[in-house]
TrEMBL record:
GO cellular component, as recorded: mitochondrion
Record-linked PANTHER family: ALCOHOL DEHYDROGENASE RELATED (PTHR11695), RETICULON-4-INTERACTING PROTEIN 1, MITOCHONDRIAL (PTHR11695:SF294)
InterPro entries according to UniProt: ADH-like_N, ER, GroES-like_sf, NAD(P)-bd_dom_sf, YIM1/Zinc_Alcohol_DH_Fams
Ranges that cross the membrane: none
Cross-referenced Gene3D superfamilies: Medium-chain alcohol dehydrogenases, catalytic domain, NAD(P)-binding Rossmann-like Domain
Enoyl reductase (ER) domain sequence ranges: 10-341
Native species: Parathielavia appendiculata
Coiled-coil blocks: none
GO molecular function annotation: oxidoreductase activity
Protein name: NAD(P)-binding protein
Amino acid sequence: MKSWTATSWGTPRQSLILDFSAPIPSLPCNSKSFLLKISHVSLNPADLVLLKSLPPWLPFRRNPVPGMDFAGEIVAVGDAVPAEMELKEGDKVCGALGLWDVARGKGTLAEFVVVESSLVAKVPAKWGPKTAAGLMGISGQTAAVMARSVASPRGSRGGGWVLVNGATGGVGSVLVQICRGLGAQVVAVCSGENEELVKALGATEVIDYRAHEPLEEHLADVFRGGQLDAIFDCVGSQALYTNSPRYLKTHGKFINIVGGWSQGVIPFIRNKLRPLSLGGTPRNYELFLLSASGKAAREVAAWVEKGVIKGALIDSEFPMEQAIEAFEKLATGRAKGKIVVNVESS
Ligand SMILES: NC(=O)c1ccc[n+]([C@@H]2O[C@H](COP(=O)([O-])OP(=O)(O)OC[C@H]3O[C@@H](n4cnc5c(N)ncnc54)[C@H](OP(=O)(O)O)[C@@H]3O)[C@@H](O)[C@H]2O)c1
C-alpha cells in the first residue's frame, strides 16, 4: 500500500518518503479493532513534534508512519469488536489515534490502518469524510472536552465571559463555537485579518494580538479587576497566565493545552506546584492533555447535531503526494482551521 514513512528524524521534508511497498496490515485473532481504508487525514502540530523528537530507529518504532486524525471506511471487523458498536464493513468512520499509536509509528497517512474500535465514531450522515476528518479528530475532540469546564456548575454557563487565545486554529475555531453555544460570551484572540471569520464562528469580541502588544496589558485594561470567567490558551503563553489575576476572576479557570519544549513539565511545575509564597500565580491552572476516544468524537458530532458547531473550518486540502507541502503549511502556524490530506487522490 501507499504510505508516508519517516526514514530519519527532523522536518517532514528531511524525514518523510512516500513508500509504495508497505504491506496492508491485517487484523489479529480476538481483535477489538477495525481495518480501515483511509480517505482523509487532517494534520496536527503534534505530528510535527513527533517527527522531530522520535527517531525512526527506536526499537518500538520501525518504519513509522505519521498522522493521527482519520476518516475512512471499515473494510474488516475484528472478531472481538463489541456488537453494541453496531459498526460493519462499508461504514464510514472517523476519529483520532491515541498518542502511543503514533509514537509507535502506527499513523494514519497510509491507505490502510488498523484502529482500535474504542477510538472510532461513525461519520454523521450529513457530512463528507473531509469535514469529519477535520472536525472529529484531535482538534475537535480537544475543544469538546475542554468546553465541558464551561458547562460545569462552577463554570461560566449562562452569560459568563471566556477568552480563547488562538481562536482561528484547529482547536480554537471549534472551541469558540461550542463556548458560544453554551451561552458564554467569547473573546477571541487572533490576528486582525481573521476578525470577520471568528465573528462568524460566534465570537462576541475580537482582539488582534498584533495590534495590542503586549496582549496582557490590553486585557488588564479591558477586563480591569478580573472580569473573565475562563481563559483557554491554545497558543501557550506563560505571560497570559502570570498576569491573569488582572483580568481573570478569583475562581476563574485558566486552561492551557500547549506543553512547550518540556512537553508540559516546566509549565506544570511553575504554574501548578509553585506555592504563592514562592511567586506562584493566585489563579487555578490546568494543563490539558487529550486522550483521544470515539466518545469524544461523538461529543463533537452531538454539537453539530444541535446546530452549535456550524461546520469545520478547513484551511486547505492537499493530495496524498503533497503531504510534505501540507505539513509545511501547518508549520507556518498560520493555518485557518484544519489542513486535510486526501489519501485517495492519485
Ligand atoms: N494538549 C492537547 O491535548 C492538545 C490537543 C490539540 C492541540 N494541542 C496544541 O495546541 C496548540 C494549538 O493547536 P491547533 O491545532 O489549534 O494549532 P493550529 O491550527 O496550527 O494553530 C494555528 C493558529 O494559531 C494562531 N496563532 C498563532 N500564533 C498566535 C498568537 N500569538 N496568538 C493568537 N493566535 C495565534 C494562528 O492565528 P492567526 O493567523 O490569526 O495568528 C492560526 O490560526 C498546538 O501547540 C498543539 O500542539 C494540544
